[in-house]
Model the fold of this input.
Amino acid sequence: MNLKIIDKEYSLEDKVDTILSALINIKATQNQELTFRSGCKSGVCGSCAVVVNGVEKLACTTMCKNEDDIQPLKNTKVIRDLVVDMSYEEKFLNNATGYLSNHQEVTILPEDEKIIDIQSNCILCHSCFSSCPVYEVNPDFLGPFALTRAFRYINDKKESDVKEHIDSIQTNGVWDCTLCGNCSMVCPAHIDIKNDIMKLRNTSAQHGHMDPAFSSGGMDFGGGFDTGGTPDFGFNPNF
Amino acid sequence: MNNSQVLDVLVIGSGGAGLTAALSAKEHGANVTVLSKTFPTHSQTAQAQGGINRAVDANDIASHVDDTLKSSHGLGCKETISLMCNLAPYTINWLDEIGVPFSRTKEGKIKQRPLGGASSPRACYSSDYTGLKILHTLYDTCIKNEITFINEHMLLSFIIEDETIKGITALNINTSEVVEILAKTVIMATGGYGSIYSGHTTNSYASTGDGIAVALKYGVEVSNLEFVQFHPTSMLGNSILISESARGEGGYLVDQYGNRFVDELKPRDVVAREIYKKIVYGDTVYLDLRHLGLEKIMETMPQERDLAMKFADIKLEDELLPITPAAHYSMGGIKTDINCQTNIKNLFAVGECADASIHGANRLGGNSLLEIVTFGKIAGKNAASINDNYEYKSINDIQVSDTQRIDNIFNMEVNENLYTIKSNLAKMMFKDVGLFRNNDGLIDALEEHIHLLNQYDNTGIEDKSKIYNKALVEFIELQNTLEISKVIITNALNRSQSCGAHFRSDDES
Done:
């Protein structure tokens, strides 16, 4: 099996199943310098996301095929080989108030729990961040994973201070998204992030916020333009 | 020195135990930093699936204590276990209040399900992503509380003076530099050592027992390392965990003829051995969930279904899943008392790196998440309450010697492949120090260990870069696993009677 990793070609004699097994095999037998992150090997720790043939994937859950091209995540600095800088994570989560601000005692029913069930499976692998075209023009965009956290707490019945969350996702937030749907396409936890961002726009409007492009009378990029993602609102191709 | 640079509390490790300890210490007024080898949400806690135990009602607390004590085979401390079981309702309540989305009944109560060795259905859960959702909610709460993180730094040494911890040194993985971090108190939350059984473990590659290895080096008391839990059900071929909740929800274990052969809800050590006996005799063992139906599988164990699909292309509602036991949990660790205190002053330990005399010879499913959060809170509170005068004499000494150690690794000639040593250690440990042990096998293991240690001492790393040198990290991890393995083998040899997960096939008593 032949693989291209960054700018080097490798040929594997041994049988490997996943991309991560291939990376481990190459590091152990061919090139000890090859550098990548790995952890749980079962798709839940979020450490091994890479770009395979142009699409973000978890190395540990993606089966390896002949001629696969493996590159580091995009939109951030490469530290070495497939290891990228993830130090922005805390800042984005904090800016998007990605936590329960103020707990209130309420009865939670199974249907309440279902609203945030999938969203609370986010593993912070940064695949969505890498796939997002907005970062090319706005490095301060809160981005898909932080907005997913915001969605998860805004829709948590236990949260009594929804407004604080809503207010925090207006600047560089929900209106800056192009609704291209790349994030929903690549999410290994099957979260339909684009759909959630659209719902967050509705919730924002209900709290008196408006699309700044619309309110200023300028061109409405917030309404979405096609960058090759799925045109079907709310459809998650991972299912 | 400038005392303003001294932390009140340094937490090492960013899994559920470390994050809870940090939140608790901060709540009690301490200045806290968390040091992580990886990133906070990359830790082993994310892989806990089945649930977190809480007695079903006040009358059931005594049974929770008894079940845990019984499963510990005499190695558990009743007082500590009793504290954990009595605090469980408060622990679950706190997790619920910070936002953990527990699965609910139609009446709005937290759902509970049975796990092995339990006389009541005590495991509270969030589908089968319980650990993941707890870990991420803890991380979100840490961000809310402005906990400081130092990520991708690996613990190297303790700084101990007058039997008191003064701080640590760590390798900055991004630069290969050694840093010194001073603290009035240190909480170890560095996780277990399942990765010693690499290739036969459900654990993360990062679970290399670093904290326990450093503890051994500095004479911190460590106990019961020979007790390694093998989980009955990991996927054949890649050792990916299939949660006990699959059996808790009614799943069967069947042999190649489709016959059930063991009570699926016996404690893990018993079930794992029965499965492994079949496998040794050439049988294949399967997990059978077909009778549960798609709807129940999707509702109660979506992750198991996803994993079986991704890794084995098997639909659990239609097909049998081949399974095998794999190393899953380290019962032994840094010995702590009921206050999470070690034998070194101001040094605490909590979670899988600690032996708090709770799980003893065999841990019950659902008790590890309960332990890490319940005792994480206790460790954080106790560490924050210490207000000793801080004095530190040997400024930078250990930092200098550790820098020399790293330089030596870079300069060492490469005579053996570190990954071959690692793989041979894992194979030997699984074969001779695994589910079944005997005198001859353990003596062979000890000899092989000496051979592997010699190979290790005579080699270095090919990668000479100072930037994010993963080979350097894995080289130090290999040293840690070699140190721990030696103690596991020696203890297993000395303990000639079977006890829980430590099963001696030559025990005739």
About this structure: The domain at 2-72 of chain A is CATH 3.10.20.30 (Ubiquitin-like (UB roll)). Chain A has two domains: 2-72, 89-215.
